[in-house]
Amino acid sequence: MDSFGKKLRECREAKELSQSELARQLDTHHSIIGKYERDEVKPSIDVVKKIAGLLGTTVGYLLSETEQENLLKDPAMLKRLNDIEKMDSEDKNHILHVLDGFIKSVKLKNIAAM
Questions:
Q1: What range defines the domain where residue 37 resides?
Q2: Do 51 and 15 lie in a common domain?
Q3: Rounded CA separation 23/29 (Å)
């Protein structure tokens, strides 16, 4: 699993930003960005949110909660997941059961197509 610092550096470089440019956008000093990238200092969650927004990624990706850089950036998908999360446990379980069935069906269809 990659560290926060390594993911930060990869995302920053993918956006072709220098440490100084990112620091300016975060209203901090470039040495702080270097410390983040070397995992010497951990930023606050508010700073991580701002970094994710500036670099076009997600907090989850930077914190290694997911390996997909743009997972859950689709606003329509996020809205659906938030709606499901607000439901009572029984309704949530029913929806997730149906969703699991659809996912399994699609996977089987893709395997059969090979």
A1: 4-62
A2: yes
A3: 5
